[in-house]
Amino acid sequence: MKTLQKKFCIALVSVSLGLAVSAGNVVAQSSAPPSASAHAGHEKPHGDPGKWAEKMKERMAKHQAELHDKLKITAAQEPAWKTFVEAMNPGTMPARPDRKEMEKLTTPERMEKSLEKMKEHLAKMQTRLTALKTFYAVLTPEQQKIFDERHKRMASHMRDRMDKRMGEHGHGMHKDGERPSMMDKK
């Protein structure tokens, strides 16, 4: 059950990141060809969280500016753009639950806590979706095409990173590149 819950959380996070990616809120693909240095400057969240958060803010601002320029946002579209960018702002990361406190809870209580967190996350995603739809509606068909293409590329990049990360931790892929099914786990 814990594995299923974990997979559900990963799926929710992936969807949320996909929305954030469309705003340019996540790490952009490097224009350089993939290599060992392709992830240079992309620090993992461990280490100094303040430093990591600051770098993420800088990247987000850069990517938002690039998307703004690429879309050629007009003065009439600017209010919807600002609302969209504000909604996509990830804010502060929620504190992890205290492990000792969680261990004191029964299994149903722990699951209820997890469900509460998922509902909070879902509410944030709904807010982002509403802002996305409002912004998308003011774009011209040409701008929508640019926006959609950028989102597809960024979402694909994020999926690849998630697959790689899952593989590094012994989850996710078989040697043949296929994801294991629930039936594989006996």
Automatic annotation (TrEMBL):
The UniProt record lists the keyword Transmembrane: no
Keyword entries, A-Z: Signal
Region (Disordered): 30-51, 161-186
Biased composition (Basic and acidic residues): 40-51
Alphabetical list of Gene3D superfamilies matching this protein: 1.20.120.1490
Protein's name according to its UniProt entry: Spy/CpxP family protein refolding chaperone
Signal peptide: 1-28
InterPro entries with a match to the protein in the record: LTXXQ (IPR012899)
